[in-house]
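G., the chain you wanted modeled:
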Amino acid sequence: MNRLFKQLGETYGTDAVNIQVWLDGIEVRNSIMLPAQWINGVEIPSSGCTIPNFPDYCRHGTEIFTWAKSIDFAGKIKLEIVVTGGTLLLTDTLGTYGRTRDFSSAMPSQTLIPSGPDIFGLVYAEVVGGVTYKDPFSEVHINSVLEKIERTNDVTGQWYRVLPENSTFSCNINVQPGIM
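Predicted structure as tokens:
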């Protein structure tokens, strides 16, 4: 049984942005993406818009690329991205059979539950000292410079990464086994 994954993101600038993506050395995307703007929670392609001010706790982005692995796969996937013609904001990395919050009540719970086959949820969650960190990226480099991020108890989600024009990004995507 396979598990589906997707990487979300959005582009910024005045022209279409070319994005090349490799997973474990295999090219999975080489095409343009139009700059985006969000209006009332809906993504509208536009030009000249600016990157949101962070921290920003909204989910951003549309699907940049997808892939599949067996449901019991656990490990690292090598991700490489080359961006030309504008800026790419990498946002959420999601997968089926992951973990998600329980949104069934008026006040969503912070407790993570299995997402199942139809909902895209977290692909990685690590508990350190009672705090759950959810960023699946490790060994992140932008233009060969290692990105260092200090974990804190109040910043636990996935870090959004800004890939400037004409940049090269690489990292490991850490994936835990799917939850049936």
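The chain is about 0% helix and 55% strand.

Shout if anything looks off.
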